[in-house]
Write a structure and sequence with these properties.
This protein is of the alpha/beta class. The chain is built from 10 helices and 16 strands. It binds flavin mononucleotide (FMN).
Length: 319
C-alpha cells in the first residue's frame, strides 16, 4: 500500500492535520462526544459560543425538527469565559488537536475584552468571532449584517490578540460578499460561512410558535445548497481562506465545499444525528483521495469547473 494522502491544510496561519472541524454549538466544550471517538483525530474543535459572563440562553422549547433541518433558538447559553478557562480548558488541553474558541459579545468592547482575556490563556489556538447568531437580541447577528460594524468588531479582536482570527458570517444578508470583504480588510485571517438561516415553525393546534423565541436559526441538510452557494460567492470575493459549513452530512457533502474552494469544513447538526459523522468524513476523504490518486487534499480545493458559466454574473434568470 502506498503512503496515505496528506489531508493537512492551513487556515489563516493555523496548520491542521485534516480539514474536518467540529462546529460551534454542536460539540459542547469538546467533551461531549469523547465516548464515540478520540477528538484528537479532528482537524480542530470549535467550542460552544462563549461570552464574558455566563448566559442562561432562551427559555424552552428551543429546538424544533423540520423536514431535513433543525430550528434552534438556544440564545447562546454558555458558562462564560472564566468558567471555561478554569473548568473545561485543562481537559481540552490533553486533546492533541487545536481548540478554537467561538466568542460573542453584546457590545464591540465586549468582543475586545474577550479577545484580551483569551490572549492570556495557553491552549487556545485561534478565535472564531460569531457575528451571526440570530437568537440573541443584542450582539450576534446585529454585528454581522452591517459591513462597518462587522469590520469594527473584527478590528477590535484582531488588535487584542496574536492568535488567528476567523470571522463567522451570517447568511441573513442581501450580499454576503460585502461583509466578507469588510472583515477581510479589517484583518480577519479566515472566514467561516455560514451560520444558520432565520426560520420559524407554528403549532397549528395551539396557534403558537413552536419555539418560545418565536424565530430560530435553521441548520442541517435543508440549508446545504444555500451554504454552498454562499461559500462559492465568498471564495470569489476574498483572498483569505474560507471554512465552509451548513448541512454537511457525509464526505461527499464535504467534497462539494472543498471543490468550490473552502479550505476546510465544519460538521454541525450532523453531530446531533450521527455523532460519528466527522470521523466518517475523514475516512471518506482519505478513501476518495486514494481512489482518485490525490496525494494532497489541497489538490481538490477550489477546482470547480464552470467553463466560465456563471449565470448570476451574466444576469440570467434562474426560473
Ligand atoms: C444547537 C446549535 C447551537 C449552535 N450554537 C452556535 C454557537 O454557539 N456559535 C456559533 O457560531 N454557531 C452556533 N451554531 C451554528 C452552527 O455552528 C452552524 O453554523 C450551523 O448550524 C450550520 O451548520 P450545520 O447545518 O452543519 O449545523 C449552533 C447550531 C446549532 C444547531
Amino acid at each position: 500500500m502506498g503512503a496515505l494522502p496528506d489531508l493537512s491544510v492551513d487556515i489563516g496561519g493555523l496548520r491542521i492535520k485534516n480539514p474536518v472541524l467540529a462546529a460551534s454549538g454542536t460539540f459542547g466544550y469538546g467533551d461531549e462526544l469523547t465516548c464515540f471517538y478520540d477528538p484528537s483525530l479532528l482537524g480542530a474543535i470549535i467550542v460552544k459560543g462563549l461570552s464574558l459572563r455566563p448566559m442562561p440562553g432562551n427559555p424552552p422549547p428551543r429546538i424544533v425538527e423540520t423536514p431535513c433541518g433543525l430550528l434552534n433558538a438556544i440564545g447562546l447559553a454558555n458558562i462564560g469565559i472564566e468558567a471555561f478557562v478554569e473548568e473545561k480548558l485543562p481537559s481540552l488541553a490533553t486533546i492533541r488537536t487545536p481548540v478554537i474558541t467561538n466568542i460573542y459579545g453584546h457590545t464591540v468592547e465586549e468582543y475586545a475584552e474577550m479577545a484580551e482575556r483569551i490572549e492570556k490563556v495557553d491552549g487556545i489556538a485561534a478565535i472564531e468571532i460569531n457575528i451571526s447568531c440570530p437568537n440573541v437580541e443584542e450582539g450576534g447577528m446585529a454585528f454581522g449584517t452591517d459591513p462597518d460594524t462587522a469590520a469594527m468588531v473584527t478590528d477590535e479582536v484582531v488588535r487584542n490578540t496574536t492568535k488567528p482570527v476567523i470571522v463567522k458570517l451570517t447568511p441573513n444578508v442581501t450580499d454576503i460578499t460585502i461583509i466578507a470583504r469588510a472583515v477581510e480588510s479589517a484583518g480577519a485571517q479566515a472566514i467561516s460561512v455560514t451560520n444558520t438561516l432565520l426560520g420559524m415553525a407554528v403549532d397549528v393546534a395551539t396557534r403558537r410558535p413552536k419555539l418560545a423565541n418565536v424565530i430560530g436559526g435553521l441548520s442541517g441538510p435543508a440549508i446545504k445548497p444555500i451554504a454552498l452557494y454562499l461559500v462559492h460567492k465568498v471564495v470569489e470575493a476574498v483572498k483569505i481562506p474560507v471554512i465552509g459549513l451548513g448541512g454537511i452530512m457525509d464526505y461527499e457533502d464535504a467534497l462539494e465545499f472543498l471543490i468550490v474552494g473552502a479550505r476546510a469544513i465544519q460538521v454541525g447538526t450532523a453531530n446531533l444525528i450521527n455523532p460519528n459523522t466527522a470521523m466518517e468524513i475523514i475516512t471518506g476523504l482519505t478513501d476518495f483521495c486514494i481512489r482518485e490518486n490525490i496525494s494532497n487534499i489541497n489538490q481538490i480545493i477550489g477546482v470547480l469547473e464552470t467553463n466560465g458559466e456563471d449565470h448570476e454574473k451574466k444576469g440570467d434568470r434562474k426560473n
